[in-house]
């Protein structure tokens, strides 16, 4: 079985509770003697097996790391783990889960090899909003419910508003439309990417 580690929590001694995103389940497992074996870190992709226990969490065993080519790139790993933390907080109360999230992380891992990681995360965030039916493409201000034109202010979850209705980041309408249609943020400059990334860090 394969999955991405979304969260680890230390318990007694060196043991860990490990939350793993597999293709169809969000799994909470128990790892004995966590510090005596291979490292278990947020964001790692692993191959593993479970020893089921009827009255307790399944035991995580036979862990094998499935390395990324960029795993030693400090900046990329920091951005990756930030996104993983956001995803954990978003999915932690779910058990059965759609394969979409696992496949999205696999896509991100591949794109991290050759692309700016913040741009990869911006595209991934948009895909999550669309998949969950939360992407507002009508450009109606969430506050005053009037149509927005020319300049669109986005806040958390890319909710659109007028600049006078909410405090957020302003973008040209044609750029947002291109982004939403193509699911690709290449139309934005680096400053705009940082602004979008700042919104993402507020939460999924």
Give a description of the structure.
The strands form 2 sheets. Strands 3-2-1-4-5 form a 5-stranded antiparallel beta sheet. Strands 7-6-8 form a 3-stranded antiparallel beta sheet. The protein is elongated and about 55 Å long. The chain has 5 helices and 8 strands, in the order E-E-E-E-E-H-H-H-E-E-E-H-H. The two termini are 27 Å apart. Helix 2 packs antiparallel against helix 3 (117-131). It is of the alpha+beta class. This is Recombination protein RecO. Residues 1-71 form the DNA replication/recombination mediator RecO N-terminal domain. Pfam families: RecO_N_2 (PF13114).
The strand line-up of the biggest sheet is 3-2-1-4-5
Q: What series of H and E elements makes up the topology?
A: EEEEEHHHEEEHH
- How much helicity do the residues have? 25-40%
Number of strand elements: 8
Which quaternary structure do these chains form? Answer: single chain
Radius of gyration: 19 Å
Structural class: alpha+beta
Number of helices: 5
Major beta-sheet overview: 5 strands, antiparallel
Shape: elongated
Domain DNA replication/recombination mediator RecO N-terminal: 1-71
Protein name: Recombination protein RecO
InterPro entries: DNA_rep/recomb_RecO_N
Organism: Campylobacter taeniopygiae
């Amino acid at each position: 079985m394969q999955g991405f580690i979304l969260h680890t929590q230390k318990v007694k001694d060196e043991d860990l509770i490990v939350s793993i995103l597999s293709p169809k389940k969000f799994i909470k497992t128990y790892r004995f003697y966590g510090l005596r074996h291979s490292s278990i870190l947020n964001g790692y992709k692993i191959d593993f097996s479970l020893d089921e226990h009827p009255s307790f969490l399944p035991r995580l065993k036979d862990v094998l790391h499935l390395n990324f080519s960029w795993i030693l790139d400090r900046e990329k790993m920091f951005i990756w783990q930030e996104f993983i933390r956001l995803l954990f907080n978003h999915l932690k109360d779910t058990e059965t889960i759609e394969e979409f999230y696992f496949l999205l992380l696999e896509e991100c891992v591949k794109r991290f090899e050759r692309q700016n990681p913040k741009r990869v995360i911006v595209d991934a965030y948009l895909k999550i909003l669309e998949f969950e039916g939360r992407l507002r493409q009508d450009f109606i201000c969430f506050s005053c419910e009037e149509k927005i034109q020319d300049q669109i202010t986005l806040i958390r979850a890319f909710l659109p508003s007028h600049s006078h209705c909410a405090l957020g980041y302003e973008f040209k309408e044609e750029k947002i439309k291109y982004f939403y249609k193509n699911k690709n943020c290449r139309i934005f400059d680096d400053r705009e990417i940082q602004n979008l990334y700042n919104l993402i860090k507020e939460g999924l």
